[in-house]
Amino acid sequence: MSVELSEDPFHRRLHHVAPAEMTGDTSQTGGMLRRAAISGASVGSRRLWMGQTHVAPATVSAAHHHGDSETAIYVVSGTPSFVFLDVEGGEPHEVRIDAAPGDYIFVPPFVPHREENPDPEVEAVVVIARSTQEAIVVNLPELKWTGPARTST
Q1: Strand segments (E) across the chain
Q2: d(Cα 51, Cα 38) in Å, to the nearest integer?
Q3: How far is CA 111 from CA 52, 57, 68, 101, in A?
Q4: Do 78 and 127 form a contact (C-beta atoms < 8 A)?
Q5: Planar angle of CA 55, 132, 142, nearest 5 degrees
Q6: 29, 35, 64, 117: which could join 124 in a potential S-S bond, CB 3.0 to 4.6 Å?
Q7: Helix spans in 24-134 (H)
């Protein structure tokens, strides 16, 4: 009995995506450029998306979230900041995480946030991995919660 290689889970091929093969043909947010490397379209991934985000010097992205996708971020270069809302004293306020090369950031599903690059000269570059095979991006008019208010227990 012969086995089709594409159906055999132990004998499928690896995929190599060189930087020149990355594409900007993915969901975008103002103030940043996402480049897809690993996706359903590029390598046939089923549960993973991976790529890069570039934020130009002295730039603030638009507010957005990534739907049901968990997002892991690794800072390659620059000093990006990640801004989101938290509640203190019953009122939402902005929280800023300032990052540097080598840092990791985790963004839970549906959390509105934005990226900022306060450096006036150096582009910020991060590698992104998402728990979905495509880059889910929901752009928002502002940084605010749209779902039910959180309560502490």
Answers
A1: 33-38, 49-55, 59-60, 64-65, 71-77, 81-88, 91-98, 104-107, 113-117, 124-130, 138-139
A2: 6
A3: 19, 24, 10, 23
A4: no
A5: 45
A6: 117
A7: 40-43
